[in-house]
Specification:
two-stranded antiparallel sheet; single chain; Cytochrome p450; mainly alpha; metal-binding; 53% helix; 8 strands; heme; 524 residues; Cytochrome_P450_fung; heme binding; monooxygenase; 5% strand
């Protein structure tokens, strides 16, 4: 008991509470007491008190406040993983009438989110994202709704494994452009990585071709990413837990994220509306290129032709256009943002682990041959199976620092029991992807970037499994995973075939060791 208390104290002192403001705590505590009163009058409290099963174990909690004051607002995935070392792979947290379940290893996540997906595929309220204008998007839609199935059908028909193969020539083209930009101006590598991911996604979604470095779409993607990562953990801010805070003035405790969301609304909507407006103009001019948006807008126009009532036609147009913009915005933001983050991690890993870079380049040289100090040709997607170590580099990128460390939270829609532990209906479920990537029972020396961990033993590897949690779980698994994985492989293989990535040097010629530090937000 003493050792766990000490560790918990250390963890708490190194993390900032989600509700650290004293005034905010007072307001929320009063609100919680009112909730308790309602629960008592309706009999809900008595039902809970009579429950024989307890929540999964977790850190010590305070009366009334529960875990409110220890709930981290920063580096949540890392804090949760440290807690899991003490309290187990499934952690239970409570505060202000809320139940939070953290799944820190792959097995319970698979059993609950995959095998019992019918009850764990819904989402909590994302009030902050709604205020920002990020709606409706498949990532955050409630499971089982008409809108959810509509959006999922759209993505399955456009980004399945077979359908995604049609975009490979576009992805390969832009991978070569990326390598050329990095050769020409390596100091701007971060900007060119973002240009690459944005160019591919906007070409697929709207047919638009990014050419200039200061293209409007790159600026929109950059600002969108910044605003999104400044908006707190998804579904896990005071405003998400207490939606009525959105109606209060900005000086009121706990309203920061509502104010941030409203101020970002106009900018965030550009990610959804600008591509739609572009394709509509191209359609009017007869110059629209084949794209995700063109397909959806043409389908809408055909439906409108069959409606004679002007009012009904106008209503359908407005409703469907909102969903079309939401679907396109999902492609634009989710497809570009996670790939951009992963490529930044790739550059970092090659800088810190030059021996890995050399091994990958030696494999490429063996497969393609070297001509005039360069490979005879650039890698194509058909070469993927002949470059097993390059494949392991990609898979290790997914594991080493996952782009979405906590995933997107799920919400349980039914009371459930797991290994003798109660998971009440309405619980918010966090799959700690980052924690799973550090599981020492599966991955040896998990903090190190080591692609050889996946290689067969006869080739000197350890035959550890690929990181299965990389795309999420169950019925909320990433619908664009085939598109994203191909795009990342092409970019990584092309960079390795054409460039050497090294640490920069100071004025004295000494190598500068880069700091390994990641942003905190939905995308890491």
């Amino acid at each position: 008991m003493s050792s766990s208390t000490t560790l918990f104290s250390n963890i708490s002192s190194n993390s900032t509470s989600l509700f650290s403001d004293k005034c905010t705590l007072t307001v929320l505590t009063v609100s919680f007491l009112l909730v308790l009163l309602v629960m008592k009058e309706t009999g809900v409290l008595k039902f809970l008190q009579n429950s024989k099963l307890s929540l999964p174990p977790g850190p010590p909690k305070e009366p009334i406040l529960g875990h409110l004051r220890v709930m981290p607002s920063e580096n949540q995935s890392d804090v949760f993983h440290e807690w899991a070392k003490v309290y187990g792979d499934v952690i239970g947290l409570q505060f202000l009438g809320r139940n939070i379940i953290v799944l820190d290893s792959f097995q319970p996540a698979k059993e609950l989110l995959d095998n019992r997906g019918l009850y764990y595929s819904c989402r909590p309220n994302f009030v902050v994202y709604e205020l920002m204008g990020i709606s409706p998007v498949l990532t955050f839609l409630r499971y089982g709704t008409k809108e959810f199935f509509k959006h999922r059908k759209i993505f399955q028909s456009f980004f399945g494994k077979r359908e995604s193969a049609e975009y490979i020539p576009t992805q390969a083209e832009y991978a070569k452009i990326l390598a050329g930009n990095l050769i020409r101006d390596p100091q701007q590598y971060v900007w060119y990585l973002e240009k690459f991911t944005t160019s591919v996604i906007i070409r697929i979604s709207s047919g638009y071709q990014v050419i200039e470095d200061d293209d409007m779409y790159i600026k929109i993607a950059h600002e969108y990413s910044k605003k999104l990562n400044d908006s707190g953990s998804p579904g896990n801010t005071p405003v998400d837990y207490f939606p009525w805070l959105r109606y209060l003035p900005s000086w009121f405790p706990g309203t920061f994220y509502a104010f941030h969301a409203r101020s970002a609304y106009k900018m965030m909507r550009q990610e959804f509306d600008v591509p739609v407006e572009y394709v509509q103009r191209q359609m009017a001019n007869g110059t629209a290129q084949p794209s995700f948006l063109l397909y959806l807008l043409e389908g809408l126009n055909r439906r409108l032709e069959d409606i004679e009532d002007p009012l009904k036609k106008q209503t359908l147009y407005r409703e469907e256009l909102l969903h079309i913009a939401g679907a396109a915005g999902t492609v634009y933001s989710a497809g570009g943002e996670t790939a951009y983050a992963t490529l930044q991690t790739f550059i970092l890993s090659m800088t810190l682990y030059p021996e890995v870079q050399r091994s990958a380049q030696e494999e490429i040289d063996r497969v393609f041959g070297v001509y005039d100090n360069g490979v005879s040709r650039l890698p194509e997607i058909e070469d993927r199976e002949n470059l097993p170590f390059v494949e392991c580099v990609l898979q290790e990128l997914f594991r080493w620092h996952p782009a979405v460390p906590l995933g997107v939270p799920h919400r349980s829609t039914s009371d459930d029991v797991y290994n003798g532990m109660s998971i009440p209906k309405g619980s918010i479920i966090f799959s700690n992807i980052r924690g799973m990537s550090l599981d020492e029972r599966i991955y040896s020396d998990p903090d190190s970037f080591n692609p050889m961990r996946f290689m067969p033993k006869e080739k000197g590897g350890k035959e550890e499994p690929y990181f299965a949690a990389r795309w999420g779980f169950g019925r909320r698994i990433c619908p664009g995973r085939y598109l994203a994985e191909t795009q990342l492989w092409l970019a990584i293989a092309t960079i390795l075939a054409t460039l050497n990535i090294r640490k920069t040097r100071d004025e004295n010629g000494k190598e500068i060791e880069p700091e390994v530090k990641f942003t905190d937000g939905l995308v890491r």
